[in-house]
Design goal:
alpha/beta, seven-stranded parallel beta sheet, globular
């Protein structure tokens, strides 16, 4: 029997591929996204696999809307097996020059958004004594990268949230997990890569960082590749807490456990071509 899986940010990218793969395997998908056209086309795509799916247009910051969405999901399916918090936005800027109003929006979407969707479904999972809460974090949720301080902060927060939440919900049969990609071959990075203005003390290193990141993305896993690994986590009865979708994440996280800080920093600076 298939699971009922809630997915936020499912209109495009990894979220969309995860939804399609799960629906093709007989799972029921309930999800939302701000992208109305993406949701409309996803409805048509999932209809090919049959089953009753619930897809809506909604913003993750709409707290009242999330409560109403939860009610509709539970009314339709009776329960939810897994919640995948996939929605998120990037943020690229030297910290000194960061627009803190935009930074607040990033934290609101990436951290409070995940908190809101988890909080909405925990009560029904707790009463049923079963469920999985899975959050999309990142390599930078444990290894901070330069020029991504705000984004790193949001992903460090997600990692801390899930690790803390684990102690609270596991006694009720609820499992938690993190997905930690480094780069996936999408337009996610390109949307946020904006050079600091002329005269910025950070412009040259930021330019080299962007060029290196663009180079690495060319050989990064595709969204379908990443989605297949995420689906395995969703379908696992006892998922691991930390789950990578690419070799780079696994390699850097392995190094992070053993190497001295100075050596780790040197490797990262050289890897991203930003040595002064």
């Amino acid at each position: 029997m298939g699971q009922v899986v809630v997915i936020t940010g499912c209109a495009d990218g990894m979220g969309r591929h995860v939804a399609a793969m799960l629906a093709a395997s007989g799972h029921s998908i309930a999800g939302f996204d701000v992208d109305a056209d993406g949701i409309a086309s996803l409805k048509k795509e999932l209809a090919r696999f049959g089953g009753g799916h619930l897809l809506e247009v909604m913003d993750i910051t709409d707290r009242k809307g999330i409560g109403k969405f939860r009610d509709r999901v539970l009314e339709k399916y009776g329960h939810v097996d897994t919640v995948l918090s996939n929605v998120g936005i990037g943020f690229f800027s030297p910290f000194e020059e960061a627009d803190l109003d935009k930074a607040l929006k990033c934290l609101e979407i990436n951290v409070i958004g995940a908190s809101a969707i988890f909080q909405a479904f925990i009560p029904s999972m707790r009463e049923r004594r079963s469920g999985k809460l899975i959050a999309m974090s990142s390599l930078v949720g444990r290894i901070p990268f330069p020029f991504e301080s705000i984004y790193s902060a949001s992903k460090f927060a997600i990692t801390g949230l899930v690790l803390s939440l684990k102690y609270e919900v596991e006694p009720f049969g609820i499992k938690v997990a993190l997905i930690e990609p480094a780069q996936v071959s999408t337009t996610f990075a390109a949307k946020i890569h904006v050079l600091p203005p002329e005269g910025s003390a950070y412009r040259d290193r930021a330019r080299r960082f962007i060029e290196r990141d663009d180079e690495l993305i060319k050989t990064a896993p595709t969204p379908p590749d990443a989605a297949r690994k995420i689906v395995k986590v969703i379908e696992a009865k006892k998922p691991r807490i930390f789950n990578q979708v690419d070799f780079m994440s696994s390699f850097f996280l392995w190094l992070n456990q053993f190497l001295p800080r100075s050596l780790r920093d040197a490797i990262l600076v050289n890897h991203m071509h930003i040595k002064v």
